[in-house]
Design brief:
Number of helices: 7
CATH class: Alpha Beta
Number of domains: 1
Largest sheet: 5 strands, parallel
Number of strands: 5
Oligomer: single chain
Strand content: 5-15%
Structural class: alpha/beta
Radius of gyration: 16 Å
Shape: globular
Strand order of the largest sheet: 2-3-1-5-4
Distance between the termini: 17 Å
CATH topology: Undecaprenyl pyrophosphate synthetase
Helix content: 40-55%
CATH architecture: 3-Layer(aba) Sandwich
Order of helices and strands: HEHHEHHEHHEE
């Protein structure tokens, strides 16, 4: 686990050092829950580290990183012994909100974005009595606006749920647009 944490931070630093300003890192899909409670116990360690481990916190500070979490993590964590992570993630998001050098979005439990997106659309329409545009929907899903992805770099099986609303513009061009690492 320590090696994974170090490697993940090294990769983020590498991309930030070379001009990428936004990274999406989908790290946990709900289908992994099928592996059982022992697996879940182990995977919760890195999910906790993202918002509390000194190496991550130093990285966020040193690199001017704003921290974000997206996905259906609220629904999955709320009723578990790990529900405390919701407050931890929210506090760190608020603490780093004004950092503008880099943005790091962690995808946690991104398994059914269609239902989540439908719910966001319905709630918005009920409140505002008008449809929302794609920019507003992206802001609601990710917590702030994220441009469509330019590149995907993978180390495993890619799933369209890893970055909903941001795919379809990928190419080999390179500039300051989001990069999705999966």
């Amino acid at each position: 686990m320590v090696v994974q944490r170090k490697r993940h931070l090294e990769l983020c630093k590498l991309f930030f050092d070379h001009g990428i300003d936004t990274l999406l890192s989908p790290i946990f899909r709900p289908d992994l829950l099928d592996r059982g409670e022992a697996y879940m116990k182990e995977v919760m360690k890195p999910l906790t580290w993202l918002a509390s481990h000194p190496s991550y916190l130093s990285f966020y500070k040193d690199y001017g990183v704003s921290f974000h979490v997206y996905g259906e993590y609220r629904e999955y964590l709320r009723s578990t012994q790990h529900g405390y992570l919701l407050d931890t993630y929210a506090r760190l998001t608020d603490l780093t909100r004004d950092r503008r050098s880099h943005r790091l979005f962690f995808g946690i439990f991104m398994g059914g974005p269609t239902e989540t997106i439908s719910k966001l659309i319905s709630e918005f329409y009920s409140e505002k009595d008008r449809p929302l545009d794609k920019k507003e929907l992206i802001e609601m899903y990710y917590g702030e606006y994220v441009d469509p992805a330019d590149m995907l770099i993978g180390f495993g099986r890619f799933c369209v749920h890893d970055a909903p609303l941001l795919l379809g513009h990928e190419g080999l061009k390179f500039h300051h647009q989001p990069l999705i690492i999966y």
